[in-house]
Amino acid sequence: MTVPADVDERGRAGRRERKKQRTREALIDAAFELFAEKGFEATTVEEIADAVDVSSRTFFRYFSSKEDVALTFQEEQFVAMREALAAQPPGDPVITALRKAAVGIARACEQGELGFDPARWMCLQNLMSTSPALLAGSLEHAQKSTSWPRARAAPSAPRQRPGPLAPRAARRSPKPSQRPSPCSRTASTTRPWPQSRPY
């Protein structure tokens, strides 16, 4: 029986992707073992590649640096956090939803739920507490990767433009001197905003 060319090509492509995934996971496993044994700063890319019996050139096909390897766990946390936040009841305040989602993901990391490895999570916490470079990379990675859904925020009502028959007071915008400063304190602790003198 002859296998069609397109089916055979898809099968080979699937095997290549599975092999790439196994190599990537092997590099992550080797990296965390070396991090736990030697520390983050003392571990080199060459040592990680040697542990998997691949070249450094192969390593850089999967990761841009050893920081990138260490923060793969954090990326998984971000994905799980976004999913947990989206699953919160729509009626909850945003702060409450964020707190519940964050606590749930942290508990899952500690207890090995949702596919998280608690030993790897603890290793990453220890690495960031002892490596300023990795901590800085983690903060930068968080700023680039985190994109919280905005569907929870209630849309504000569209601003209505006063019509031609509206009272003049409604059409007239307040003078700049009547607008409170963005750096001012609350109205209960400040004096009334002074009126400007006409020139």
What features would you describe in this structure?
By secondary structure, the chain is mainly α. Among the domains are: 52 residues, Arc Repressor Mutant, subunit A (Orthogonal Bundle), CATH 1.10.10.60; 76 residues, no CATH class. It is 59% helix and 0% strand. Helix 5 crosses helix 6. The radius of gyration is 28 Å and the shape is globular. The relative contact order is 0.08.
Cα distance, first to last residue? 97 Å
User: What form results from the Cα inertia axes?
Assistant: globular
Q: What's the total helix number? A: 9
Instruction: Sketch the major β-sheet.
Output: none
Radius of gyration: 28 Å
Our estimate of the beta-strand percent is under 5%
Poorly predicted ranges: 148-199
Summarize the helix and strand pattern as letters. HHHHHHHHH
Roughly what percent helix?
Answer: 55-70%
Secondary structure class reads mainly alpha
Overall mean pLDDT stands at 75
Number of strands: 0
Provide the descriptors you would attach to this structure in a database record.
199 residues, mainly alpha, Arc Repressor Mutant, subunit A
Short description:
The protein is mainly alpha-helical. The chain is built from 9 helices and no strands. It starts with a helix and ends in a 28-residue tail after the last helix.
